[in-house]
Amino acid sequence: MNKKMKTCPRCDSDGCTLVTQSPVAGCWEVYGCPQCFFTWRTTEPDTITDGSKYDPRFKLDAEKISQYNTVPTIPPLLKE
Amino acid sequence: MAYKDLRAFLQRLKEEGQFVHVEQQVNLEPDLGACGRAVTSIGDNPPALLFDNLFGYEQGKRAVALNVIGSWANHALMLGLPKDTPVKEQFVEFSRRWDKFPIPVKEMKDAPFYKNEVTKDINLFDILPFFRLNDHDGGFYIDKACVISKDPVDPDNFGKQNVGVYRLQVKGKDHLGIQPVPMHDIAVQLRMAEERGQNLPVAIAIGNDPVILIMASSPLLYDQSEYEMAGAIQEEPYPVVKGKLTGLDIPWGAEVVLEGEIIGRKREPEGPFGEFTGSYSGGRSMPVVKIKAVYHRTNPIFEALYLGIPWTELDYMIGLNTCLPLYKQLKETFPEVVAVNAMYTHGLVAIISTKTRYGGFAKAVGLRAITTPHGLGYCSMVIVVDENVDPFNLNQVMWALSTRFAPSKDLVIVPNVSILPLYPAAEPAGITHKIIIDATVPVAPDIRGEFAQPLDPPATAAQWEKTLRELVKSTVKRSK
User: Measured between beta carbons, which residues in chain B are less than 8 angstroms from residue A39?
Assistant: First the structure.
C-alpha cells in the first residue's frame, strides 16, 4: 500500500485502508478513512488526494466531527 | 404507455432524439460529474446520456446513465405525451391521472435482476461504477435509487410501505450511509424501529423506469403507496417482485437491487454532499446501512443524477411531482385553489393561485401550505396570487407581486418553524421563519388600494392568439 494513502486527505488521521481496486487491474484504487468516512480514488486530482492541497474550507478534525448534528436524532427506547 | 424498465425508456428517448451514447473512454472523476453538469446547459431540452467505456471497467460490461429525466421533453415522454407538451399541460394531465389512484400492483414471480446474485464477499464497487459528483462530496454516492421499507408496527399495510429517494454515501464494499430527513417517511419508520431497539430492513433498487422514480421522489401522504400511484400515472398496474431476504416489494424492472438493513441506534459521520439547494450540505451524523445481498442484471446500468446549482436533472424530476400533492392537499381544504407551482428548489418557494372567498383568505391558503406534510420541511416562502394569474408564468407572478402586494398589510411572518436541515439559510439547522406573501387583490371586508378598475384584454384577444399562433406556424413552414 502506498504510504501516503494511509493518511486521510480530509481529516489527516492515520489508519486509512484500501477499500477496493479497479476491476481492470492497475487502473486505480479506492481508499477510505475510518474516522471521517472520506473515500477517494487514486486517479483523482491532488486537490482531493493530497491533504496539504485539500480545500481548507472542507478540512475536518476530531473536534469538528464531534460537533456534528445527529440527523435524525435517536429516540429513547420504549418501555416494555 | 408504461415503460417496463429503464432500457425501454432509453430506447424511446433514442427514437425521439433525446438520448446520446458517449462512446469515448471517460474517467469516473471528474468526467461523469462534469458531463452531468454540462448537459444541463446544452439547449432547452437536454438529452439523457449513457457511458459504457469507463476507465477501470471492462468496456460494455458496466454503464452509467445520467440526465434520464433531465428536460421537459424527457418528462413529457415519461408521461407518454408528445415531447413538446407545455409544462402546464403536463401538470393538467398529471393531475387527471393522479385522481385514478390507487391502481393495485401486478405481482411478478421473477425479475431480470435475479439473474445474478451475490451474498458473500460483497463488493459494490465491482458491480456499480461509483463516482464523485462534485469535488468536495465526502465520497461516492447513490443518489437516484428507490429505497423501500415497511412500517415496523404495521408491516402488512401495503400503503404504508414506503418507496423513497434518499442520498446514500458509499463508505465501503457493503457499507452505506443514508440521509433520512426527519420529515420523510423513512425517518418515521426508522424512529419506530429504533424505539423498539430494532434494525429497519431496506431494499435499494437502482436503474429504474422513470415513473417509479417520479413517484418515489414525490411527497405523497404516509399511507399512500408510491406503487399504486405509479400505476395511476402510467395507467397500468405497476409490476413488483418480492425481495428474497426482506420480503419487501421491489420494482420488477430494476437493474441492480441491494438488500440489507439500517442499523438501529447507530450514527456515523456523513457528507458533505453537493445538494439541490446549490450548496454543500455540511457534515452530519447519520444512519448506516449494511448490505447483505446484491442482485443484478448482466451488464447492469448504474443510473445516477447530477445535482448542484439549479436547474439540474433533479429539478425536472421533483418539479411537477412536488406541485401535485401540494395542490391536491390544499384543494381538500380550500376548493378555491386553482394551481400550485412548487418547482423551485423542491418547493422551498411555492406559488399558489386561488380564488378568494373573503378578505384575508389568501393568507389562510398560504398558512395551510406551510402545514401540509411537504410544507413542514419546505415552503419557506409562499406567494399567493389570484386565479387569473398563471403560477407557472413568472412574468405574471412578478406583475402580481409588483402591483398587488402591500408590504404593510400583505406580509405574514411565521417565526421559528420547521424546515429541512439542508436549507442553507436556517438558524439553527432545521428551524427558520417562513413568509406568506399575499399578492392577491384585497376583497371585502379588507377594502383598500386602487383595484376598482381592472384592465381586461380586448374582447377577441384569446381568439386572435390562436389565429396568430397558426399564422406563425404556417409562415415558418412556407419559409422552409
Answer: 138-140, 170-171
- Please tell me whether the peptide bond between B82 and the residue prior to it is cis, using omega within 30 degrees of 0: no
How far apart, in whole angstroms, are the C-alpha atoms of residue B171 and residue A74?
21
The ipTM of this complex is 0.97
- Put simply, the chain B residues between 15 and 34 with a CB less than 8 A from any chain A CB are 27-30
Pick from B25, B26, B29, B423 the residue to mutate for testing the A interface (most A CBs within 10 Å): B29
Residue B293, all three cell numbers: 445481498
Report the half-sphere exposure of B261 (CA within 13 A, side-chain side): 14
Three-state DSSP state, B478: helix
CA distance B124 to B115: 16
pLDDT at A4: 63
Could you tell me if A69 lies within 8 Å of chain B, comparing CB atoms? yes
C-alpha dist (Å) from residue B316 to B8, B189, B196, B201: 20, 28, 38, 30
Cell 422551498 sits on residue: B348
| Nearest one of B219, B225, B224, B223 to B376, comparing CA atoms | B219
Strands (E), B218-287: 239-242, 249-251, 256-262, 268-270, 284-286
pTM: 0.91
**Rounded (10°) angle between helices B226-234 and B87-98:** 120
Cβ contact A19–B30 (<8 Å): no
* Residues of B marked as catalytic: 275
Q: CB atoms < 10 A from the CB of B416, how many?
A: 9
Name the β-bridge partners of B344.
B349
What per-residue confidence (pLDDT) applies to B290? 98
Contact A19 B136 (CB under 8 A): no
B421/A27 touch (CB, cutoff 8 Å), yes or no: no
Do residues B429 and B271 touch, judged by C-beta distance below 8 A? no
Run of H or E residues at B288: strand B288-296
CA-wise closest residue to B101 among B325, B331, B330: B325
* pLDDT single digits (tens) B365-401: 999 999 998 999 999 999 999 999 999 999 999 999 9
CA–CA dist B156, B231 (Å, integer): 20
Taking only the tens place, the pLDDT of each residue in B409-463 is 999 999 999 999 889 999 998 999 999 999 999 999 999 999 988 899 999 999 9
Asked if B190 reaches chain A (Cβ–Cβ under 8 Å), the answer is yes
Low-confidence ranges of chain B (pLDDT < 70): 1
Task: Give B369 to chain A, closest Cα distance, Å.
Answer: 24
Distance CA B316, CA B343 (A): 8
Cα B379 from Cα B344, distance rounded (Å): 10
Shortest distance, CA A58 to any CA of chain B (angstroms)? 7
* A26 shares contact with chain B (CB less than 8 Å): no
**Interchain pair B123, A20: CB under 8 A:** yes
d(CA B375, CA A50): 42
Q: Rounded distance, CA B43 to CA B40, Å?
A: 8
